[in-house]
């Protein structure tokens, strides 16, 4: 589950991580009130207005602006709220901005220069260890840094059974070229950041930039946080942070129906029971010359209601030119699935795309007869190769 910047920062703050203070606002008027409150609490008289969407690169799209007066805050917030923000991480249509974060200005003058640092914590699945990735080149796309100056990117592996050790936090601060008070502040920052990552069952914490201020404080200026969906039952307060307006509405609808659905960019809809079979089905579609339009797992209880709902969700994608149903009847009986397909077809009406059905397992023979005798425009197949050939045929 992805979080907004202000939500990620609130989690960081709860673990003692120093952050750029800010207040979320849904209207220009709320933004002005937030700016006044920040002025009272922090003394800041400049503010940063940040669009809150689930995408990076907001500054490049005009979603991050500096305001130097309350009138400026209102104007900048008015321009950002309601805009369709296009960034390198959004679609061509962009994402509509519903709220902004009004944040304190932390780039104040001082005796020493400020510096921006990149830092993230994530799981290295190949090694089975958490990894802290960091670089002195903060504020830039880390992919660009990796391509042009890979020697400036460091990583520190952390044994999850032991946790982050003090010498590792000091090593990170040293590699970042810090000294004195900034060195001490960075070791505290890294230690608390790792505790936050583990404590909230995150799969990613990315802070770009981490700022060393002119008075040697270390502050999280941004926060991109992804939580592990499977752990949300342990964190109902975090689960309540979910913003479905930032998610694909079809995926949200599928989730509410108990279907595992992920939209893809292809032209063949998939309806399968079991993640492994779904992956194999997507491979079959590719081999047939098509492209999967979705991943959809109806689960072990593929009854008529779930099958109908799955059809309706698949058909909401205008790119779908054919649908392949590939069900293995282990727990569920194939004839019941077949009856569900027939009932769903009749309830939906004339389905405008060809449907290829492969049912194998318990009562597969009866299921095939039921499909073939239904009088519907449904192609029944037995073998995976037949399914692939039929998909290629209907797409031709």
UniProtKB/TrEMBL annotation:
Origin superkingdom: Bacteria
Binding site for substrate: 273, 330-332
Entry cofactors: Mg(2+)
Residues reported to bind Mg(2+): 208, 222
Cellular component terms per the entry's GO annotation: cytosol; succinate-CoA ligase complex
Residues that hold ATP according to the record: 50, 57-59, 106, 116
Every ATP-grasp fold succinyl-CoA synthetase-type domain range: 2-210
Domain ATP-citrate synthase/succinyl-CoA ligase C-terminal: residue ranges: 271-390
Pathway(s) annotated for this protein in UniProt: Carbohydrate metabolism; tricarboxylic acid cycle; succinate from succinyl-CoA (ligase route): step 1/1
GO biological process: succinyl-CoA metabolic process; tricarboxylic acid cycle
Coiled coil residues, start to end: none
The keyword Nucleotide-binding is assigned to this record: yes
Cofactor annotation remark: Binds 1 Mg(2+) ion per subunit.
Catalytic activity: GTP + succinate + CoA = succinyl-CoA + GDP + phosphate; succinate + ATP + CoA = succinyl-CoA + ADP + phosphate
GO molecular function, one term: succinate-CoA ligase (GDP-forming) activity
Keywords of the record: ATP-binding, Ligase, Magnesium, Metal-binding, Nucleotide-binding, Tricarboxylic acid cycle
Known EC number: 6.2.1.5
HAMAP family per UniProt: Succ_CoA_beta
NCBIfam families tied to this protein: PRK00696.1 (NF001913), sucCoAbeta (TIGR01016)
Family: Belongs to the succinate/malate CoA ligase beta subunit family.
Quaternary state and interactors: Heterotetramer of two alpha and two beta subunits.
Function comment: Succinyl-CoA synthetase functions in the citric acid cycle (TCA), coupling the hydrolysis of succinyl-CoA to the synthesis of either ATP or GTP and thus represents the only step of substrate-level phosphorylation in the TCA. The beta subunit provides nucleotide specificity of the enzyme and binds the substrate succinate, while the binding sites for coenzyme A and phosphate are found in the alpha subunit.
Protein name: Succinate--CoA ligase [ADP-forming] subunit beta
């Amino acid at each position: 589950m992805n979080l907004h910047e202000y939500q990620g920062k609130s989690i960081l703050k709860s673990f003692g991580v120093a952050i750029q203070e800010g207040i979320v606002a849904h209207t220009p008027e709320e933004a002005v009130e937030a700016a006044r409150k920040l002025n009272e609490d922090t003394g800041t008289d400049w503010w940063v207005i940040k669009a809150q969407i689930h995408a990076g690169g907001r500054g490049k799209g005009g979603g991050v602006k500096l305001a130097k007066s309350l009138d400026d805050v209102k104007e900048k917030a008015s321009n950002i709220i309601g805009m369709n923000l296009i960034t390198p991480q959004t679609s061509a249509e962009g994402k509509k901005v519903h709220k902004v974060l009004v944040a304190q200005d932390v780039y104040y003058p001082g005796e020493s220069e400020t510096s921006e640092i990149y830092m993230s914590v994530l799981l290295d699945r190949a090694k089975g260890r958490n990894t802290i990735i960091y670089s002195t080149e903060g504020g830039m796309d880390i992919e660009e840094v990796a391509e042009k100056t890979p020697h400036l990117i460091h990583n520190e592996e952390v044994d999850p059974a032991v946790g982050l050790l003090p010498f590792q936090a000091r090593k990170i601060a040293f590699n970042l070229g810090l000294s004195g008070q900034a060195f001490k502040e960075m070791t505290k920052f890294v230690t608390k950041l790792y505790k936050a990552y583990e404590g909230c069952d995150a799969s990613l914490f990315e802070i770009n930039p981490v700022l060393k201020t002119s008075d040697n404080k270390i502050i999280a200026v941004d926060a991109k946080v992804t939580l592990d969906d499977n752990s949300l039952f342990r964190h109902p307060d975090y689960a309540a942070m979910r913003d479905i307006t930032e998610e694909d509405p079809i995926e949200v609808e599928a989730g509410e129906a108990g279907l595992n659905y992920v939209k893809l960019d292809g032209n063949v809809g998939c309806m399968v029971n079991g993640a492994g079979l779904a992956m194999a089905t997507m491979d079959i579609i590719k081999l047939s010359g098509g492209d999967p339009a979705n991943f959809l797992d109806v689960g072990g209880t593929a009854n008529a209601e779930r099958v109908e709902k799955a059809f309706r969700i698949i058909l909401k994608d205008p790119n779908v030119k054919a649908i392949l149903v590939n069900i293995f009847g282990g727990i569920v009986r194939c004839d019941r699935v077949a009856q569900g397909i027939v009932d769903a077809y009749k309830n939906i009406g004339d389905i405008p795309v060809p449907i290829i059905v492969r049912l194998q397992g318990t009562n597969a023979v009866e299921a095939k007869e039921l499909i073939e005798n239904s009088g519907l425009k449904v192609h029944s197949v037995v073998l995976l190769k037949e399914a692939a050939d039929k998909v290629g045929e209907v797409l031709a």
